[in-house]
Amino acid sequence: MKAVRFHEYGGIDVLRVEEVERPAPGPGQALVEVRAAGIQPGETMIRQGARHERWPATFPSGQGSDLAGVVVEVGPEVRGVAVGDEVLGFTHGRASHAEYVVVDDVNLTPRPEELPWDVAGSLYVAGTTAYATVFAVDPGPGDTVVVSGAAGGVGSLAGQLARRRGATVIGLASEPNHAWLKDHGVVPVAYGEGVAGRIRQACGGNVDAFIDTAGDGYVDLAVELGVRPQRIDTIHDWQAAAKVGARTDGEGAAACAVVVGELARLAARGELEVSIARTYPLDRVRDAFRELERRHPHGKIVLRP
Known about the structure:
Blueprint: E1 2-5, E2 16-19, E3 29-38, H1 41-48, E4 66-74, E5 86-90, E6 100-104, E7 108-110, H2 117-120, H3 124-137, E8 144-148, H4 153-164, E9 168-172, H5 178-183, E10 187-189, H6 195-203, E11 209-212, H7 218-224, E12 232-234, H8 238-244, H9 257-268, E13 276-281, H10 285-295, E14 300-304
Parallel strand pairs: 8-9, 8-11, 9-10, 11-12, 13-14
Antiparallel strand pairs: 1-2, 3-4, 3-6, 3-14, 4-5, 5-7
Helix pairs in contact: 3-4
């Protein structure tokens, strides 16, 4: 089978699509033929070695967490899935950017018939991260929540989930994304110099919670806006969070098939939009990451093995 591999830390050129032996499922595992698998900015940082101390790679390394596909084989003691089931879920083995992947049965959930493969295959990392950030700051009716990177993969979902809780959401994004934010009930505000004043003007001066999906000083901005550290959550700026006592809940805080299944059902009913920017065949994985790293597209980029 074909699978993405890299044999050393480096840029996009270290990525290879290689022929490897098809894995066999062990106890409690299923072999999934992958139909779609999302790519993430975090995979770029891991491949470059920028996250070596936190998430070291063992070479040769695969990559990929998100996945959706069809179960083609099951191991002994499997529960909840059977051959022929259409599923989505995740692997912690950095292995979903491949034609086949072995997945623990507890990390799979049924794919709703109405949910497109591309959405199903890109829901885990962005979806569970967004879910965790919203849970961490606990917005409710009457609250005003600011989301940085509000048009990105995580931020766009976090804004929608906070809106579902009844909060007013202010989304920091570039001008071309403002129309999309308005269409989803989010108040758009341009980021950059003077952003604190624009936020205060948009909300009447009171901010209750802050979700930072972009890093680069937004924890400090939240403090400047008067948000209590317990209601600030960042998925990037861990150093700033430690300094002020903010939260750092992300994907790992909601990494379970129950959450993925809930998000999938919302998306299938049209109650949560997961935007897809573009799909690439597995053989063009380098092109997929070039696009991701070049311009931070609105929506997910997906590999189709």
